[in-house]
Amino acid sequence: MSPDMRTILHVDMDAFYASVEQRDNPELRGQPVVVGGDTRGVVAAASYEAREFGVRSAMSMADARRRCPNLVRIRPRMAHYKSVSRQIFAIFRQLTPLVEGLSMDEAFLDVTASRRLFGNGVDIAHRIKNSILEETRLTASVGVAGNKLVAKIASDLDKPDGLTVITARDVHDRLDPLPVEVIPGIGHQTLNRLHHLNIRTVRDLRLAPDRDLESVFGRFAQRTRERASGIDRRAVVAEREEKSISAEETYDVDLEDRNDMERELRRLAETTAQRLRKSELQAGTVQVKIRQSDFRTFTRQCSVQPPAVSAEQIYHIASELLGAWLAENADTRIRLLGVGGSKLSPAEQPDLFGP
């Protein structure tokens, strides 16, 4: 089927973690709520009341408190959020098997083949929103379009509890006035370069001279112009397998001593190994995640042959990766460390000496 004939939905739960907490505790309703770590952590989710003060996810908790002194902080309950997420994804799969989860609270759905049973894209979107509300007492915003890119942009245009449809006929009218940063892949540095070229809206990007786009995006210039034109040929891919398994920790006091870093690295490697064993998986790649005290974040990874499953193997590789990074970043202070494995495959032989 031609991509132009598809019906794609992007479903995005509204302030998911914070909304779950407000649902479960009536005293939190109407309050500026954030879910996240302590004053040295970051905001995982912010209620819409907190967003009125400029509080956003991924913001440091200290910054969030400066913006909103009356902020109510709730510690994350990830197991609970995953349970609610499973309810939501079960609703999706009642309508189509083509569900591509992006996170616990966000997914693409290809409902093209479902239209004969459940009506057009708008009908299906209403059905999903109503089912989520009835079963979880939570709201979702849905974008309906002919491809993933436009559906994702649409879902964000009328939050919370919105439903936005963008057809092929009105894609330019709807996208052109939007700020250029709605196009995926345009970060802060790229945005500054575009503004320097006086490219500020999607229309500006769509009509920009080739030389300007090439100066910013290089070989991806044509693809960027296509995205600004609302063109996206990617299919919705139903992906249920875990892509990575990891463990990380944010510290109340920055790590400065190498021995402390190694101790934490070993503990994280053991947690990752336990999770791999529980899932009967092995990792073809081991990676470390490092966040400095200034919030700059780095990752380093290494392919492993044979694939890693033991805590000792994961620790030694992670230690080498961290050591190489520290050699280039001496006298640094670390506020977060993470150890993980990716390129997962079924474990060929269980770790006989694992707990």
Tell me what the structure shows.
40% of the residues lie in helices and 24% in strands. It is built from 14 helices and 12 strands. The chain has helices spanning 16-24, 48-51, 61-67, 78-95, 115-118, 121-136, 148-155, 171-175, 188-196, 202-207, 210-217, 221-228, 258-279, 311-328; strands at residues 8-13, 33-36, 43-46, 72-74, 99-103, 106-110, 140-145, 163-165, 244-255, 281-292, 297-308, 334-346. The protein has a 5-stranded mixed beta sheet with strand order 5-6-1-7-8. It has a 4-stranded antiparallel beta sheet with strand order 9-12-10-11. A 3-stranded mixed beta sheet has the order 3-2-4. It is globular. It starts with 7 loop residues before the first strand and ends in a 9-residue tail after the last strand. The relative contact order is 0.10.
Compose a concise summary of this entry:
Among the domains are: 63 residues, MutS, DNA mismatch repair protein, domain I (3-Layer(aba) Sandwich); 58 residues, DNA polymerase, domain 1, CATH 1.10.150.20; 103 residues, Dna Ligase, domain 1 (2-Layer Sandwich), CATH 3.30.1490.100. 40% of the residues lie in helices and 24% in strands. The protein has 14 helices and twelve strands.
Write the SSE topology.
Blueprint: E1 8-13, H1 16-24, E2 33-36, E3 43-46, H2 48-51, H3 61-67, E4 72-74, H4 78-95, E5 99-103, E6 106-110, H5 115-118, H6 121-136, E7 140-145, H7 148-155, E8 163-165, H8 171-175, H9 188-196, H10 202-207, H11 210-217, H12 221-228, E9 244-255, H13 258-279, E10 281-292, E11 297-308, H14 311-328, E12 334-346
Parallel strand pairs: 2-4, 7-8
Antiparallel strand pairs: 1-6, 1-7, 2-3, 5-6, 9-12, 10-11, 10-12
